[in-house]
Design the sequence.
């Protein structure tokens, strides 16, 4: 299933990093952004907390009602995933292999329907660019904080870019598998803000390979 969100995040590199084309009028001004923290997705380094930049409060409050139904849907999907986990000796539904029948098929269908509906809401369309930019910024920030000395030159350059041009900062660290970290961050950003995560192309098409 090819959806608008997938097309947005599959835009650069082998795993296809999203290409952010930010509209200045849509981008929150730095003085309007409230700093908070979000826990990084899993990675080889010890977990740290990264500075997460919220939407302006008036924007968040205005859009929150439209996301409430998706927060409820996400909890139902989570319940189904836990049900699969319990019934299959601690295995993820991704391990099913066959996604056409049974509980795994039900979970996949729920996630696909969720994303089809979410990406067509006015609220999601309004903040889509912001969520892309923030996921790239968090990815670059994670790399800045965890890279070893061999990346010193890239880290130094990324620090000068990250606030104004997070896409260029992120490009400095792209490698095989980076898409999964960026997708995790994008999901975390929306969950942190509205309790409504996004599901990545890898989740929506578990038979496809992404690197």
Sequence:
């Amino acid at each position: 299933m090819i959806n608008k969100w997938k097309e947005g995040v599959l835009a650069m590199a082998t795993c296809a990093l999203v290409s952010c084309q930010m509209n200045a009028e849509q981008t929150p001004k730095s003085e309007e952004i409230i700093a908070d923290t979000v826990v990084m997705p899993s990675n080889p380094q010890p977990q740290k907390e990264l500075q997460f930049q919220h939407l302006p409060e008036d924007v968040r409050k205005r859009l929150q009602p439209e996301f409430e139904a998706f927060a409820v849907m996400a909890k139902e999907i989570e319940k189904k995933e836990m049900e699969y986990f319990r019934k299959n000796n601690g295995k993820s539904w991704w391990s099913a292999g066959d996604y056409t029948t049974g509980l795994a098929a039900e979970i996949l269908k729920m996630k696909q329907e969720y994303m089809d509906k979410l990406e067509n809401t006015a609220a999601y369309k309004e903040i889509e660019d912001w969520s892309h930019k923030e996921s790239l910024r968090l990815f670059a920030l994670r790399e800045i904080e965890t890279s070893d000395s061999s990346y010193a030159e890239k880290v130094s350059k990324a620090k000068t870019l990250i606030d104004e041009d997070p896409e260029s900062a992120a490009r400095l660290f792209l490698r095989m598998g980076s898409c999964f970290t960026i997708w995790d961050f994008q999901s975390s950003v929306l969950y942190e803000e509205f309790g409504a995560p996004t599901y990545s192309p890898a989740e929506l098409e578990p038979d496809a390979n992404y690197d």
Remarks:
- The longest strand covers residues 35-39.
